[in-house]
Amino acid sequence: MALNGAKRLAGSLFGKAEMPDLGLGDTGKVLPLRPMMERLLSLDREAWGLYAWSREPLEGKFDREQKLQYQRKAEACGREEAVLAAAEAVLEVPDSLVKSAAASMKLHVTTPDTPVGGGQVTFAQYVEPDEVTIFMDAVEKAEALAASEGLADLLGNVKIFDILLAHEIFHAVEFKKENAIYTKTERVELWRKPFSNKSRLVCLGEMAGMAFAEELLKLPFSPYVLDVLLMYGYHGAAATALFEEIMEIAGENGGKVEEETC
Asked: Is 262 part of a structural domain of the chain?
């Protein structure tokens, strides 16, 4: 599938992926999952930042160094907020800091199997002011894949549910601190004066949310690696196309993983 097709398929880890009519058909190149995960886990922070930027509508207005500067500030914001959330959380749920953080913030967390309606795959979502939804069909598919592919040695014992929840908690933090938090107050000038128009950068909140989850859960990897795992549970060819796009953005050759055969 072409690069643009992969972009239409999966905007981000917790966005909505349009499944129908992407030119993939019922068959397509499907690479084995474990080698893809190994390659993804080897990518550095800069590569994941450029991947996040590839989903930003205003990406073309910035050069590489500017993007990386924004990334560093967004990730610092996410880590700082994770430290604050951990300190403020009352351990209401035994052995689960992230669930306790959600409870301390009085978030209403629901866990339906799938979204209402068809045509989209959604992993998780936050709705202002206090609603978080984790769709368990995606979680269960990803966990089953992780078990069948023996990914525990790569991903550790961290629960996919907790990573999804942590990311959405950050968006609740953004809402609560909208007038002060970096990801909401940082604006870029789109037009020169006198026709001033300042816009927010959507990718800052996503990068910060990933850093928040990484810090809160003490992850040894970027949560972005789950993009491919979560998509693989629904469409192996789509996940493969997304993997190859990530490798291209990172400046890597995605073709080093051999194609899956029946």
From this structure: no
Q: What distance in Å separates the CA atoms of residue 51 and residue 67, rounded to the nearest whole number?
A: 11
Print the domain residue range for 35: 3-252
Amino acid at site 82:
A
What tens digit of pLDDT does each residue of 59-89 get? 999 999 999 999 999 999 999 999 999 999 9
- Within-domain flag for 32: yes
257 falls within a domain: no
What string of H, E and C letters represents the secondary structure of the chain? CCHHHHHHHCCCCCCEEECCCCCCCCCCCCCCHHHHHHHHHCCCHHHHHHHHHCCCCCHHHCCHHHHHHHHHHHHHHHHHHHHHHHHHCCCCCCCCHHHHHHHHCCCEEECCCCCCCCCEEECEEEECCCEEEECHHHHHHHHHHHHHCCCHHHHCCCCHHHHHHHHHHHHHHHHHCCCCCHHHHCCEECCCCCCCCEECCHHHHHHHHHHHHHHHCCCCCCHHHHHHHHHHCCCHHHHHHHHHHHHHHCCCCHHHCCCCCC
Residue-wise pLDDT for 200-226, tens only, equals 999 999 999 999 999 999 999 999 999
In a domain, 258, yes or no: no
